[in-house]
Specification:
757 residues, alpha/beta, 6-stranded mixed beta sheet, 29 strands, binds beta-D-glucopyranose
């Protein structure tokens, strides 16, 4: 609210000041306001229009420049080049080559005011839509590190690679709270817990944008998405409706956006889904009242891909597309992502008096302000790749490796891991030597840039014979002949390693089973991979199962079968994944990843989350095992951590007071290692029902074997507050239980009581 008033004040000031928008010493907001004064209505609306990169426009495989004039029903406009020269395009997304980024900016420089284009891309876990850039583990894996501060480094490196490829704006972080494993987008989120999502998102934004709001030097705009509630769609299907109480929204889904706004996020993207009957692209309560006025967001809001059109075509909210465009502008959406006709509709909307000029000035003004802040006007045309060199960076790859090592979660281990020496290994499964490990939002990378599990193991076991069976890299490719072959190779081996799971690769023709718009009606291993697992395990030889997927997989049989000796959840570990996995298997690295989601036994248990209400499991499923397969926060180590009794500096406090908690942690096992120490709080009784526990803090110390440390946590009023019956955040007097330990499972937690008077 405060900041919105500020922009209005700047606009008013600029209207009477004599400054010049070319003056790079003026603040970005002031320059934007001065530039607006010189712009026609068409040029202002042009800033609100975003188009997809011409290399998406099919027919011509020749020069990308030629493709700009190509025509396609949805992707591309036959007059796009001219529209850019006319100043009717403000931004692009998914410009996939450096040549194109260069050529598009040259076209923009030929427009009357020469306003540069803002280039957006889904750099979700690294700038993976550009070949040669660093690909970090998928976001669910990054969350498994339980080290939010690592995101600042990853964000900064991603920003650096983006700027070096002519990009200025990433559609990340994804702050959806992922609470349904059928949903294919779980892998691009930071898990089911609002605290962890908020922390991961905050550090990610700081890394991408910097902490001081100065974007110019190697920084990019971040985008908090998707506002709001897409993480538990009905039936697990992307974009399906979300009906939730305001309390649930405020307690679970809004906190990550609040944290993002506090971290200074420059842009927000609206969600595909409807919220309580109102699509998020037509929801002025959400965008104007909550996001802008209440949270104080001062950047611009972009639509999701062609979702404004879907107010008509998918949501059946309005009878035609024209009305959808106008409604979105009235609801606070500032930029239209991809496609034609928006420009003309909005222009007519202003001319007819329906859309006030002030609304256009606000939207265009914020977009221009971002461009000024990025320094685009001073340096609009990126050099061609030949002059710029290769974007990849050895230091960034080391970060990717570090993140992969910490993201891998050891789910089960009967003692077989770390592996001893073996002379004959059978490595089997579609994901063992595949770019599946890169996850969604990545184009195929050079093979030399990716270390697969096969390559990692070959390096780790140089003397061993490794028999392989990869099913052509297809997770749905296991057939009768393959099962027979696997059975005999497994019997001949001393050790079997299976790499099974999903495939999220959006540009592969390999039967995608996960990722955006790839939801499933179950969470089993796709295709005949379960049969493969059982056939290999039946060999009687030691068997290790590696799960490579963007979603939690309900591998109940493997978890309970004694013939599967270990299960390692690798998620989608990025380009260095094979090395990190081999290091974990051999013990060169001690696993320290923890689950940022609960793993259900099967899809029937969904919704299965750790921070549920007390009544959820007051009754039991008939004919079934109770409880999740693996709890949130679970993850084994090769060493043993012992927790002392936690102590509070006071056990009775007033409502506005904080209290300190201390606990001793000892590495009582044989190996050095890191432990993600988790602090949960339960409000015992409230004016409304409260979850059984909520994660409130995490610390991840590294301890040498035999070493001890004392950890201190501050428990603040914000950590005790709830959105109570009074419909506001408050600390309600009463008893709280503070729990500290190695997972969300009660058996892993030590408790201490705290009373608020
Ligand atoms: C996704 C967004 C993404 C956009 C642009 C949409 O389909 O929902 O998350 O940023 O496409 O690629």
């Amino acid at each position: 609210m405060k900041k919105t008033l500020l922009l209005t004040a700047v606009l008013a000031f600029a209207a009477c000041s004599g400054g010049d928008w070319h003056d790079a010493t003026l603040p970005a907001g002031e320059r934007a306001a001065l530039l607006l004064k010189e712009m026609t209505l068409e040029e202002k609306i042009g800033q609100m229009c975003q188009y997809v990169g011409p290399c998406y426009v099919p027919p011509d495989q020749g020069s990308p420049y030629k493709n700009i004039d190509a025509s396609d029903e949805n992707l591309g406009n036959p007059e796009l080049a001219q529209r850019i020269r006319d100043g009717k395009v403000g931004a692009f997304l998914h410009v996939l080559t450096g040549e194109e980024a260069h050529q598009l900016q040259v076209l923009a420089s030929e427009s009357r005011l020469g306003i540069p284009l803002l280039m957006g891309i889904d750099a979700i876990h690294g700038n993976g839509l550009r070949a040669g850039c660093t690909v970090y583990p998928g976001n669910i894996g990054l969350a498994s590190t339980f080290r939010p501060e690592l995101m600042e480094k990853i964000g900064a490196e991603t920003a650096d690679e983006m700027r070096r490829t002519g990009m200025h704006w990433t559609f990340a972080p994804n702050l959806d709270v992922a609470r349904d494993a059928r949903w294919g987008r779980m892998g691009e989120c930071f898990g089911e817990d609002p605290y962890l999502v908020s922390e991961m998102g905050k550090y990610s934004i700081w890394g991408l944008q910097g902490r001081d709001g100065d974007f110019a030097e190697g920084k990019v705009l971040a985008c908090a998405k998707h506002l709001i509630g897409g993480g538990e769609p009905a039936g697990g299907l992307n974009a399906a409706p979300m009906d939730m109480s305001e309390r649930k929204m405020r307690e679970l889904y809004l906190p990550p956006f609040q944290a993002a706004v506090e971290a200074g996020v420059a842009t927000v993207m609206a969600a595909h889904n409807e919220l309580n009957g109102v699509p998020c692209h037509a929801n002025s309560w959400l965008v104007e009242d909550i996001l802008r006025k209440e949270l104080g967001f001062n950047g611009f809001v972009v639509s999701d891909w062609m979702d404004i059109e879907r107010l008509h075509s998918m949501h059946h909210l309005v009878p035609d597309q024209n009305e959808a465009f106008l409604l979105s502008v009235e609801s606070g959406i500032d930029m239209h992502m991809q496609g034609d006709h928006y420009f003309e509709s909005v222009l007519e909307g202003v001319r007819s008096g329906r859309i006030p000029m002030k609304r256009i000035d606000e939207a265009a003004g914020k977009i221009l302000e971002a461009k000024f802040a990025l320094g685009l006007f001073e340096d609009p045309i990126p050099p061609l790749p030949a002059q710029r060199g290769f974007p990849a960076d050895a230091e960034h790859r080391r970060t990717s490796l570090e993140a992969a090592r910490e993201s891998i979660v050891l789910l089960k281990n009967d003692g077989i891991l770390p592996l001893g020496s073996y002379s004959r290994i059978f490595l089997c499964g579609p994901n063992a030597d595949s770019q599946t490990q890169l996850g969604d939002w990545v184009v195929p990378q050079e093979d030399d840039d990716v270390i697969t599990v096969f390559e990692g193991l070959r390096e780790a076991f140089p003397q061993a014979r490794i028999d392989t069976l990869f099913f052509g890299g297809r997770v749905t490719g296991v057939d009768e002949a393959g099962l027979a072959q696997a059975t005999s190779l497994a019997r001949a081996a001393q050790l079997n390693i299976l790499v099974l799971g999903d495939n999220s690769q959006r540009y592969s023709s390999f039967g995608r089973t996960c990722g955006e718009n790839c939801d499933r009606d179950n969470i089993d291993l796709p295709g005949r991979q379960q049969e493969l697992l059982e056939a290999v395990a039946a060999s009687g030889r030691p068997t290790v199962l590696l799960l490579m997927s963007g979603r939690a997989l309900g591998v109940e049989w493997a978890a309970e079968s004694p013939s599967v000796n270990a299960i390692v959840n690798t998620w989608e570990p990025g380009q260095m994944g094979g090395q990190a996995i081999a290091e974990i298997l051999t013990g060169a690295v001690n696993p320290s990843g923890k689950l940022p989601v609960t793993i259900p036994r099967n899809a029937g248990q969904i919704q299965c989350v750790y921070n549920h209400k007390h009544s959820q499991y007051s009754r039991h499923f008939a004919l079934a095992e109770q409880g999740p397969l693996y709890p949130f926060g679970h993850g084994l180590s090769y060493t043993r951590f012992e927790y002392g009794e936690p102590t509070l500096s006071k056990t009775v406090i007033g409502p506005g007071e904080s209290v300190q908690l201390r606990v001793t942690l000892t590495n009582a096992g044989p190996r050095d290692g890191a432990e993600a120490v988790q602090l949960y709080i339960r409000d015992e009784y409230g004016s409304v029902t409260r979850p059984v526990k909520e994660l409130k803090a995490v610390q991840k110390p590294f301890l040498k074997a035999g070493e001890s440390t004392t950890l201190e946590f501050e428990i603040t009023p914000a950590m005790l507050a709830c959105w109570g019956a009074g419909e506001k955040w408050e600390v309600e007097p009463g008893d709280f239980t503070v729990m500290l330990g190695s997972s969300s499972d009660d058996k892993d937690l030590n408790c201490v009581s705290l009373t608020v008077q």
